[in-house]
């Protein structure tokens, strides 16, 4: 795995990219990278409870996207974070063109197979799009409090 740390400010948009290869240690590396970017943008896991909850949700979502790329797509190639106007877009690129799909209904008490359910519950929106010979799976989360607070939770 290599690091491709890049922070760039374009007006009110800030972007960070992390180039990746392989699967060993990639989930924790992406979580650490995301946590640092959020801290740089003023959001800390040790901040007020509302901020803490949003940061923890984002770190869980990043873990799910990266884990899914490891399990189903041969590993992620790049993690991209775009922060603009209180909105965060997380993108994980991989070399597999197959789009994510939910597995058949399973017992929710059993481990595994719940990644897309977590995305649907915690992200404001998510999806995937073709990129090159692979795809990008993305999600969006509101970092700044809006009506009803951050994220999708009431």
Automatic annotation (TrEMBL):
<keyword id="KW-0723">Serine/threonine-protein kinase</keyword>
<keyword id="KW-0547">Nucleotide-binding</keyword>
<keyword id="KW-0067">ATP-binding</keyword>
<dbReference type="InterPro" id="IPR003594">
    <property type="entry name" value="HATPase_dom"/>
</dbReference>
<dbReference type="GO" id="GO:0005524">
    <property type="term" value="F:ATP binding"/>
</dbReference>
<feature type="domain" description="Histidine kinase/HSP90-like ATPase">
    <location>
        <begin position="38"/>
        <end position="139"/>
    </location>
</feature>
<keyword id="KW-0808">Transferase</keyword>
<dbReference type="InterPro" id="IPR036890">
    <property type="entry name" value="HATPase_C_sf"/>
</dbReference>
<dbReference type="InterPro" id="IPR050267">
    <property type="entry name" value="Anti-sigma-factor_SerPK"/>
</dbReference>
<protein>
    <submittedName>
        <fullName>ATP-binding protein</fullName>
    </submittedName>
</protein>
<keyword id="KW-0418">Kinase</keyword>
<dbReference type="Pfam" id="PF13581">
    <property type="entry name" value="HATPase_c_2"/>
</dbReference>
């Amino acid at each position: 795995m290599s690091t491709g740390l890049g922070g760039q400010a374009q007006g009110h948009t800030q972007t960070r990219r992390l180039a990746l290869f392989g699967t060993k240690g990639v989930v924790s590396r992406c979580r650490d990278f995301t946590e640092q970017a959020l801290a740089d943008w003023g959001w800390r896991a040790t901040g007020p409870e509302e901020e803490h909850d949003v940061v923890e949700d984002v770190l869980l979502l990043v873990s799910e996207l990266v884990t899914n790329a490891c399990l189903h797509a041969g590993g992620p190639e790049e993690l991209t974070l775009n922060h603009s106007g209180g909105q965060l877009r997380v993108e994980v690129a991989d070399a597999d063109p197959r789009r994510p799909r939910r597995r058949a209904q399973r017992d929710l008490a059993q481990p595994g197979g719940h990644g897309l359910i977590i995305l649907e519950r915690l992200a404001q929106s998510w999806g995937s799009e073709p990129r090159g010979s692979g795809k990008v799976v993305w999600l969006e989360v509101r970092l700044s409090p809006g009506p009803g607070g951050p994220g999708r939770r009431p």
